[in-house]
Amino acid sequence: MAVLSEIEEDELDEEPGEVIESAPPQKLGEERQLNSNSPIKKKLLKRGHGWETPNFNDQVTVHYVGTLLDGTKLGSTRDSDCPVTFTLGQGEVYAGLDDGIVTMKKGEVALFTLPTVESEGIPQDSNSVAQFEVELVSWITVVDVCKDGGIIKKIMEKGKGNDRPGDLDEVLVKYQVSLVDGTVVAETPEGGVEFYLKDGHFLPRLPKVIMTMTRGEKAELIVQPQYAFGEKGREAGSGFNSVPPDSVLHVNIELVSFKPVINVIGDSTVIKKILKEGEGTFTANEGANVTVSYTAMLEDGTVFEKRGIGETQPLKFVTDEEQVITGLDRAVATMKKGERAIISIHPDYAFGNVEVRQELAMVPPGSKVVYDIEMMDFIKEKAPWELNNNEKIEVAGRKKEEGNLLFKSGKYQQAAKKYDKAADFVIEDGSFGDDEQKLAKSLRISCWLNGAACCLKLNEFPGAIKLCTQVLDVEFHNVKALYRRAQAYVETGDFLLADVDIKKALEVDPQNREVKVLKMKLKQLQANSDKKDAKLYENMFASKSKQRLKVEKEEGEVVKLETDNVGDSAAPSDGGLIIDSR
User: Which portions of the chain are predicted below pLDDT 50?
Assistant: First the structure.
C-alpha cells in the first residue's frame, strides 16, 4: 500500500508552469490566472451562454470599461452605450486584452487585471496594473479559407449541426456576387442553384468555400483576384455580368442544403445520393435481412421494375447473398432505416453486357441503371460477441455449408467469404468449454482448408499459403494443409518449400494418391527448370567465350597496326627494343 500511495502522489505532482487541462469550471467571483505563463488575471462576474468561445481573427463586439487602480479611465463604451467591434489578435483596444477575450463565452462579463503598457500612454511601472471589465456581446467567426488571406469568410449566421458537404455532394446554394463598388455581377434565382461540388460553379474556389459550411449557414466572402478571375477578368455570358481584371469580389452566400453522395465501392461505379437521411447511426451490414421499396430505371428514365410502389410488394432479401445485382447489394448495405437514396450503377455491377428482360421493360446490354430506393426495415446479422457458444457453433456450421454450396456452383469468391465469416464465429478466444472447443477447432480448421481451396481456384496463392499455415500451426501433421500449401508453392515457383511439404505429407500418409501425383509434377517441373538453368548458363559461357575471342582478335589487330606504323617510321639503331619495350 505504501508503494501505491507513493505512485499516486507522484502522478499528482505538477511540473512548474504545467497547465492542468481538467481544471474545474471557474466560479462566480473567483479570480484566476489565464495560465501559468500569463501575467493576466480573470475574475468571472457573470456566466455566459453555451460552450463556444471566439478565436483570434474573429470579429468580436464588446462593452468594456478600462481603469487604473487609482481610478484613471483608460476608455469606456458604457458612456455612449455603444459597443465596439474589432478583430481579435490585433491589440486594437489594449495590448494583452485579446488574450482574455478569447476565453469568454457569449454574454459573459469578466474583470481582467493586466500590466500597464507604456505604448498606451501610461508611464511603465512594474507595480502598475490596468483593469478592464468586459462584456462579450457577440462575435463573428472569421475563416481564412486558403490560409493565405486569399478568401476570407465571415460567418454571419451559423448553420445547423456539424455536417459539411464533401466534394462529391450535390449542394443547393444562394449567392450574390458584387464588386467593391457594389456592382452586382452574379446572383442566383430566388430558389438558389443546385450543382455537384466536383463540377464547380462560377468561381473556381467556390466549392472549397462551400465545403467549410454547414446546412443553413450564411456567410460573407472577400475573394482576392488570384482566387476570382485574376488579371484577365471575365467576360459577360451564361447569365453573368462581366468582371473587370484584378477585381476583388464580395460574396454573400447561403448553403441552403446538400445531398450527401457516397462512392460505395470506391471507383465511382456505384454512386449513392442520399435524398432523405435515415434514422439513428446503424446501417444494414453484410448478411442483414432487408426490406426495400424502389423504382428501377434506365438512364433515359425508362422504368423496368417497381417494388413496394403502388400495389407491388416490397422486396425482401439478405445482403451479400447474390440475391440482387451486385451494385444494389453493396449500396443497400450502407443504408439506414428510413433512408431514401438514388443509386446509380455501372453495367459491370448491374446486368453486364447481356440483355435482360425485367418486369416492365427490357434492359439493353451494357446499360447503366438507376434505383430510387427507400430502406423500409432491416434486421442486422448478429455479431459473434452477441451469441452464446452454442449459437456461435451453429452459425459457423451453417455458413460453412452455405460456402460449400457456393463452391460447388463455382462461386469461389463468395464461398471464400462464407468460410472466412464462419471461422470468425469460432475463433479461439478462451470462451469455449472442452467439448465446445473440439467442435469449434474442427470447424475453424475445416473453414481454413476450404478457404485455401478457394484461393487455389482463384489463383490467390499467397492467401492459400497463409490459410494452410494457420492450420499447420494448430495441426502440424494435417495432410490436406501440407498438400494445398505445396500446391501453392509449386504455382509460385518455390519448389524447395513445396518439396518439404510433400515429404512431410507422405510421411503421414505414404499412400496418398493426390500427394504422389503432385510429387511427380514437381519432379517434372524441377527437371524442366534445371534444363532451362543449364541452357541459360551454357549461353552465358558461350557469350563470354565469343567476347573473349573477339577481344583477343581486336588486340592482335591493334598490335599488328602498331607494328606496321613503326616500320613506316624512321627506325633508330636499336629499333627492335622499341617493340620489346611495348
Answer: 1-20, 126, 558-582
Query: What residues are paired with 273 via a beta bridge?
Result: 261, 342
CA–CA dist 146, 512 (Å, integer): 70
What does each C-alpha distance from 504 to 41, 106, 517 come to in angstroms?
79, 77, 15
Q: Phi, psi at residue 549, to the nearest 5°?
A: -60, -40
State how far the Cα of 367 lies from the Cα of 342, in Å rounded to an integer: 16
**Cα separation, 209 vs 212, whole angstroms:** 5
- The span from the CA of 233 to the CA of 549, in Å, is 74
Distances 503 to 17, 364, 488 between C-alpha atoms, Å: 70, 56, 15
Measure the CA–CA gap between 346 and 369, rounded to whole angstroms. 7
pLDDT digits (tens, 9 = 90+) for 358-412: 999 999 999 999 999 999 999 988 888 889 999 999 999 999 999 999 999 999 9
Given a contact cutoff of 8 angstroms between Cβ atoms, the answer to whether 136 and 104 are in contact is yes
pTM, entire model: 0.68
User: CA-to-CA distance for 330 and 341, rounded, in angstroms?
Assistant: 13
Between CA 221 and CA 253 the distance in angstroms is: 8
Residue pair 251/221 in contact by the 8 Å Cβ criterion? yes
Q: Which of 143, 199, 190 has its CA nearest to residue 171?
A: 199
Give the angle 378-343-413 at the CA atoms, nearest 5°: 70
Find out whether 483 and 505 touch, Cβ atoms under 8 Å.
yes
